[in-house]
Amino acid sequence: MPDLSQRSKPLENYLKKRSLRAYHNMKARANKVYVALPFTLEQFREWLRPKFGINGETRCEYSGELILVENFSVDHRQPVARGGSWALENLALCSEKQNLRKGIMTKGEYAIFAAMVTTHLPHEVQQSIWRKLEIGDVQRFNYFKRQKK
Fold it and tell me: Tell me, what's the pLDDT at 2?
């Protein structure tokens, strides 16, 4: 199977720019806790290429919505703040909105939470919850800190 660079130069350029930014963000975050990323930028790009295919699009791992190579977000399925690995196997491609909503929940916890919100709450309450999560509700983080103790 030919790689993205042989099929479309613009898509490869987007992939290079976005992967560089995502990699540097992960590396900076890892450096803050004195951890070295267990993969290189090139290994990260090799992990990303097949996920976007020839169209430069894939599905968000959490919502199933379409995401493009121009605007993907990378998340840890098991948050590193809760003992998750920095390895490629723990990474998920998602939309930025879903990444913010998930926060430091695990993938499973977020799936249960999202199902509860969408099936049991009125639309206005759902919208309020999603907005708060997307802007970074501080109380959510304090809840999980208390759970660890």
Answer: 45
Q: In the chain, how many domains are there?
A: 1
Report d(CA 80, CA 86) in Å as an integer.
Answer: 7
Q: What is the pLDDT of residues 35-92, one digit of tens each?
A: 999 999 999 999 999 999 888 999 999 999 999 999 999 999 999 999 999 999 999 9
Judge whether 103 and 140 are in contact, CB under 8 Å: yes
Q: What angle do CA 46, 30, 17 make, to 5 degrees?
A: 40
Structure tokens at 149: 């103790």
Question: Which amino acid type is present at position 19?
Answer: S
Residue 9's pLDDT band, with cuts at 50, 70 and 90, is: confident
Among candidates 63, 45, 66, which has minimal Cα distance to 55? 66
> Which residue segment(s) compose the domain that 126 sits in?
4-148
CATH number at residue 143: 3.30.40
CA 78-83-89 angle, 5° bins: 45
Secondary element (H or E) of residue 93: strand 91-94
